[in-house]
From TrEMBL:
InterPro entries: 4Fe4S_Fe_S_CS, Cholesterol_Oxidase, FAD-dep_OxRdtase_2_FAD-bd, FAD/NAD-bd_sf, GMC_OxRdtase_N, GMC_OxRtase_C. This is Cholesterol oxidase. Residues 193-301 form the Glucose-methanol-choline oxidoreductase N-terminal domain. Residues 319-329 have a biased composition (Polar residues). GO terms for biological process: cholesterol metabolic process. The lineage of its organism: Bacteria, Bacillati, Actinomycetota, Thermoleophilia, Solirubrobacterales. It comes from the Bacteria. Its cofactor is FAD.
Length: 704
């Protein structure tokens, strides 16, 4: 007999280990929940991060290509995004800047009315700063790059706004000194003070940056949370008696070795970052049908933080600009724009290929033509950027962010390259488009270049491809008053799916206008503070009634593939069978089964030990005994409840396999096939409990 298909009482699965997931893991473990964190990436040691500076294979995220790193870049139809996958999520490649947004963010009408959000979040911002060890960048960490930024600010009349940024970095008294944990009364790991190497954005290999594995995640494990790396969640499936089953895989494995055991939990917190969260929830709603009640706002109100990233390359022989943290100073050229400088040690191999000449223009097509014209007319100038020696030492990136109104939509649609697959794609939103050109960004870049003697540059994904580029994508599952205006409520619970929550940047409905990691952390702290202990929740919330099954065979196969296997004991009783799929199949299948020896087939009957028999003639007669056991599927290798017939059963029944998995409403979706050769897909049917409780002893097969 298998174990009951019920989650452990008080269990929570947290999907993702970035800012939202790390906060959720610690706080929920402290409240008494049994927490499992599921992270698709690897845990990267300091040695791994140091190796990543020398090897693209160790730097890039791409397990399907053999890469084992963390950094990724994705380009959609309307935006480009960078991020990281691994234990700690985006904090691996985070610049550690900790800024609280201005009034424009809190006053944005996209927030649900009735809550004073600045006051609501004030205590949680304070907690986030303390947990992440925020301190002002010391004067000794500044160098020539900061002087150039001050000169640019002065040229733009904004020198009074220039200053050192608050950062989540351990500076200590002297560089490179290792000491016992200075933040959590010795409960944290040992730390090494910042060496001012300029490599924060490529992963700190020295233990100075306060990445999440050194605070929230470290303390969460001490509080009892488990972190399961190399575990990608492919589907979320509600369970009939409450809670959820998570279908998991190992992205670094191949074939059936990719399969990971399902994870069952009473509550699920999705914190996979905007792209990961959107991919998972959209797939479950629109393709797999396991979360059909998520509302129409899923994927809407996606924002790029109105961001642009420009660059300046100093001439050969210039002094190195790498000394310092990646980001050390900033300024505000106007009331809605924020600019920081960036050192980029460790990622220059890719970065040099991403830049071209600085070109103005509101019209994306005209700007693209002018950029290409300059590259063609001055190829040597362009090659000096692409092939520059000491590129990282001579390069400065400017990150420009605004409080804006532009938004996009993410949807689950067919791939333009592989149309047999569905992928995440972007589309225009309901408001102005996310900008790919910010005039103030180019103005600041020219001012910096003039002050430093460098060459100003634009990212070609912005200037040629016309995409908004960001490291800080927001929205897609925004907080709202109801399902018509948001995806989650103010407690971060998904409308229509009790016990399912979102706690990451997806819930933010407005551009933050500055680096958003502090705000994501504060919102996650607020979410966790309102979550409550297992005792206050009272067990798993039953799943809502499942919508109708799809009619297409391919869609049915996808739905079946992500369902969990039921336990044998749950089968006890009579089950009415119904063929599903295309209308032609539903009409022909009963005749086919009758021709094979089961005319007027009604369904199946099982006892509590897995012995069963088919029922014919409206369930009044028994025919063809069978046995149900938990076994690997012949279709995909994952667990199923396998129904087989004895070796002496008449042909073809001795070769028939019915593979059963459980739908959220308690029904069984089965794939049936004659296993005399390679089995890839079966004939689908559904078993629904009839409600009769009198299960007789199975008689010997009777004549039909």
């Amino acid at each position: 007999m298998t174990a009951p298909l019920r989650p452990h009482p008080g269990s929570v699965a947290v999907i993702g280990s970035g800012f939202g997931g790390a906060v959720s893991a610690l706080r929920l473990a402290e409240q008494g929940w049994s927490v499992t964190v599921l992270e698709q990436g690897r845990r990267h040691t300091d040695a791994d991060l140091l190796a990543a500076r020398m090897s693209l294979r160790d730097y890039l995220w791409g397990p399907e290509l053999g890469a084992r790193g963390f950094f990724w870049q994705r380009v959609f139809g309307h935006m480009g995004i960078i991020g990281a996958s691994g234990v700690g999520g985006g904090s691996i490649v985070w610049g550690a800047v900790m800024l609280e947004p201005g009034d424009a963010f809190f006053d944005d009408p996209a927030w649900p009315a009735g809550t004073a959000w600045r006051e609501e979040l004030a205590e949680h911002y304070a907690t986030a700063r303390r947990m992440l060890g925020v301190t002002e960048t010391p004067a000794r960490a500044l160098s020539a790059q900061d002087d150039h930024l001050l000169a640019a600010a002065t040229a733009m009349g904004a020198q009074d706004t220039f200053g050192r940024v608050p950062a989540a970095i351990y500076y200590g008294d002297r560089p490179g000194v290792t000491t016992d944990d200075p933040f959590f009364d010795g409960a944290g790991p040992p730390r090494t003070s910042c060496r001012l190497c300029g490599g924060c954005l490529a992963g700190c290999p020295y233990g100075a940056k306060n990445s999440l594995d050194r605070n929230y995640l470290h303390l969460a494990q001490r509080a009892g949370a488990r972190i399961q790396e190399r575990t990608r969640v492919d589907a979320i499936v509600p369970l009939p008696d409450g809670g959820y089953a998570l279908r998991c895989s190992d992205p670094f494995a191949r074939g059936r070795a990719r399969h990971r055991p399902d994870v069952l939990a009473e509550r699920v917190v999705v914190s996979a970052g905007v792209l990961g969260t959107m991919e998972l929830l959209l797939r479950c709603r629109d393709e797999l049908g396991t979360l059909p009640r998520i509302g129409p706002r899923l994927g809407a109100h996606v924002r790029t933080n109105s961001e642009a990233v420009t660059g300046i390359l100093q001439p050969p022989g210039s002094p190195s600009l790498t000394r310092g943290p990646s980001i050390s100073t900033d300024f505000h050229p106007d009331g809605r724009t924020h600019i920081t400088q960036n050192r980029y040690v460790g990622g220059g191999t890719l970065l040099r290929l991403s830049y071209g000449p600085l070109v103005d223009g509101e019209d994306p097509r005209a700007r693209a033509r002018e950029t290409l014209r300059r590259i063609v007319r001055h190829p040597v100038t362009h090659l000096r950027t692409v092939l520059a020696r000491d590129f990282e030492a001579r390069f400065t990136a400017l990150t420009v962010m605004q409080s804006g109104e532009g938004d996009l939509r993410l949807r689950w649609a067919r791939s333009p390259v592989r149309p047999w697959r569905r992928v995440l794609r972007s589309a225009p939103g309901s408001g102005p488009a996310a900008p790919s050109y910010l005039p103030v960004a180019n103005d600041a870049t020219r001012a910096f270049a003039q002050a430093s003697g460098g060459t100003p540059l634009n990212l070609t994904v912005e200037s040629i491809a016309g995409r908004s580029f960001t490291a800080h994508v927001l929205g897609g599952a925004v907080i709202g008053p109801d399902a018509d205006h948001g995806v989650v409520d103010e407690r971060h619970e998904v409308f229509g799916h009790p016990g399912l929550y979102v706690a990451d940047a997806s819930v933010i409905p407005a551009d933050v206008g500055v680096n958003p990691s502090l705000t994501i952390t504060a919102l996650a702290e607020r979410f966790a503070a309102r979550f409550g202990s297992p005792e206050t929740h009272g067990g798993a919330t039953p799943a809502p009634v499942q919508d109708d099954l799809p009619a297409g065979l391919a869609a049915l196969a996808r739905r079946w593939a992500v369902l969990p296997a039921p336990d044998v004991a749950s089968l006890e009783g009579d089950w009415r069978a119904t063929f599903v799929g295309p209308a032609v199949l539903r009409a022909v299948a009963p005749r086919g089964v009758g021709a094979l020896g089961l005319p007027r087939w009604w369904g199946k009957r099982f006892d509590a030990h897995g012995s069963g028999i088919n029922l014919v003639d409206d369930g009044h007669r028994e025919h063809q005994p069978m046995t149900a056991t938990l076994a690997p599927s012949a279709i995909d290798g994952r667990p199923v409840l396998l129904v087989t017939y004895p070796p002496d059963a008449p042909l073809p029944w001795r070769h028939v396999r019915d593979e059963l998995r459980q739908l959220p409403d308690g029904r069984m979706l089965a794939m049936s096939a004659i296993a005399t050769g390679p089995l890839t897909r079966g004939l689908p049917f559904v078993l629904a409990r009839d409600g009769r409780t009198n299960v007789r002893s199975h008689r010997a097969p009777a004549a039909p």
